[in-house]
Amino acid sequence: MNCSVWHFRIGFPAVPQSLPLGPDAPIHSLPEGAPPAGRQDNNSLDPPRKKNAAGDQGKNKGARKKREYVPQRRCGGHAVLLTLRRASQIPGGKGYMFKMELQAEAQQLCDKSFSVPDLGSKYTAWSSVSTLIQKNLVMKTHNPARYSLTEEGLALGERLESLEGTKGPEGDREEARSEGNEQQQEEGEEGGPGIVDLTVSDDDEEERIQATERPTSSASRPGVLVPGMFFSGKPQNVPSRKSWSLLPGSYEIILCVDFIETTGGSKNCKQDLVKELQRNGVTFDVRKLNVGDFLWVAREKVAPIPGQLRTPVGRELVLDYIIERKRMDDLCGSIIDGRFREQKFRLKRCGLRNPCYLVEECGKAASHLSLPETTLQQAIVNTQVIDRFFVKRVQDVRESMAYLTVMTRYLNKLYQNCTLTCRSRELEGDGEEEERGTPPCSLISFAEFNHGAIKNKSQTVKEVFARQLMQVSGLSGDKAAAVLELYSTPLSLLTAYERFAGEADKEKLLSSIRYGKLKSFSLTPGQLRTPVGRELVLDYIIERKRMDDLCGSIIDGRFREQKFRLKRCGLRNPCYLVEECGKAASHLSLPETTLQQAIVNTQRVQDVRESMAYLTVMTRYLNKLYQNCTLTCRSRELEGDGEEEERGTPPCSLISFAEFNHGAIKNKSQTVKEVFARQLMQVSGLSGDKAAAVLELYSTPLSLLTAYERCAGEADKEKLLSSIRYGKLKRNLGPALSRTVYQLYCTQGALT
Q1: Are 589 and 551 contacting, i.e. CB atoms less than 8 angstroms apart?
Q2: Which residue from 12, 148, 165, 732 lies 20 to 30 Å from 197 (Cα-Cα)?
Q3: Are 347 and 329 in a shared domain?
Q4: Is 330 among the catalytic positions?
């Protein structure tokens, strides 16, 4: 379940010493005679009148024409234009940049910070982007926002690039003249620095939040270094640095708790978690964590700034410890639906060196789990031995909170005399400090950590390819990562296959790739034995779902996969038996309307007793239905269209139980077509019906790529799959999905 939390923050200008504070202090206007930053004259708070306006043309016929907008060198607009222009020149580039990466690249070309406002001002270098958008130089699209240059912006960027190497005092005059107007326009359009704008957009609110994450003045914090963050820039008159540091005594260790751990589910259990932490005196903060349930941050101690309503939020570095809490029943469900493997993969890639699983017993509910205890114990051992996670076993939530309390105190003692330095995930080391027995002091910021761990963010071809590789039986996260180091896209892997002439060489291409910390070779999964039996399966199959299980399976995608497998199992009459969950229905993570919509045309029962009564009636009905029938064994490969059933007689041509059960194995030895189907379903919006429709025409990746090669131009390739019809209503697949699949298999950029 994804929840959103909105924070409303209002930035106020610095209050002069002579301004009275209290209930009579002015808020929405500046004191008379106090000029705002960036303007020499402030006799009026009215926005500045633009020269050469339509109304003034009659009065000033001889006035000069409005100058072309050219941002001043080393300012925010200049840096953004140059960065986007250079990004557009990269061969095979995606043609746009996200906000965070644009700020990171443009900061090197700007003297003003993109995230920290100057003292006495609420504007940063990023504020100039709104001016670039209004002047049709930069285009903002999609959500999350993507920034790219228009034709006018590209032309201006080329001019700035040509002047970049030959700049001097003479060359800056033209830009300086237009830059003065730029600052006036920004302040006038946004209400001026003396007025609080209560109608800010999402991006403006995000800019305000980012501006408060780091202090605006270094003088108020003695002993703390002042460099800019790796993605933000340096304040004015401060040397450029790629990292910043927190000295001993200038920060405090805080436990961060994922908000999911305190909301939803069993209310009493969630309240016990918070009460135990409070009782133990642990300083904690509830927030959204995109991976893991608990982690620790070193938060900078920031003193209140006179005249500001809120105390600025200090910078935060994430300590190299992260904990994923698992109750045994949740562990069971996550193993069944494949979530467990994905979580381990994401924890390994989150950027923190010490991931830990906190496995909690579930008491009496352990006797009702869907998997045997031996399977769960083996999964825990594999996590510890093979995946090399630290696993801590506890009995209940109280013992879990006691462990977190001990860990918090241990980390406070471990880091009490350490100077912490911010590093970028792109420059991660090999953990040499930790191996020498000292705590890792080169840490990543919380903002970068949480942004990099977003589960459903806009994905690149490499990320989708990683998920596709993991659909192959026996290909774990470590093995997929090892393959991606050499072949980051399907196109690069297929190009490598084309270099070999024989099939034997192609089959051995990946065999020598080493993976994991032990650098083992990839193993070939063993063959499964096909059970033998003399049983025929009647054409009726039932999937039983409690409402709480239904809710969980909808959230993690298991529900869609189960329906897809039931449709392809070979039996003509699949049925869902939906069972109410009593009082637990009030604590479900999805609204009742969503669940009701998902279970239209299903058999509803109240409890397990009524479920068994329904199965009893069905058994008696089938005994009577088939009592005079001769049953014949058929193969699934020769399935008919159910004509016997349509004529009112029961279907007597049935498949054997051995063939049915073998065909329904989830992780059995698979054909290329079956793996290709699962890979297609990893594309967002491509359901089981749509994947099946694509497979009818292109049963393997090779056949699809061959079809792309026959197309004449890029437009034809993007529309290749758009006219494929799927489902009972025979709707078209559409150009959007067709373009996404083409980009996945034939390009190397981001998916649009």
Answers
A1: yes
A2: 148
A3: yes
A4: no
Same-domain status, 685 and 744: yes
Instruction: Please name the residue that has the structure tokens 């489902």.
Output: 727
Rounded to whole angstroms, how far apart are CA atoms 700 and 614?
A: 42
Residues 6+ apart with CB under 8 A from 350: 291, 292, 322, 449, 452, 453
What local confidence, expressed as pLDDT, does residue 259 receive? Answer: 87
pLDDT of 215 above 50: no
Supply the pLDDT for residue 202: 42
Indicate if 687 and 735 belong to the same structural domain: yes
The reply to whether 320 belongs to the active site is no
Contact 293, 324 (CB under 8 A): yes
Is 261 labeled as catalytic in the residue annotation? yes
Residue 752 in contact with residue 739, Cβ under 8 Å? yes
Q: Active-site residue among 111, 261, 478, 659? A: 261
Active-site hit among 182, 258, 316, 659: 258
- At 482 the pLDDT is 87
Q: Of the listed 105, 179, 276, 293, which one is catalytic?
A: 293
15 domain residue, yes or no: no
* Domain hosting residue 168, numbered range: 76-213
Return the CATH number at 547: 3.40.50
Letter for the amino acid at 739? R
Q: pLDDT digit string (tens) for 499-550?
A: 888 888 888 888 888 887 666 554 343 332 334 446 888 888 988 888 888 8
Is the pLDDT at 77 greater than 50, yes or no? yes
Rg (Cα) of the chain, in Å, rounded? 31
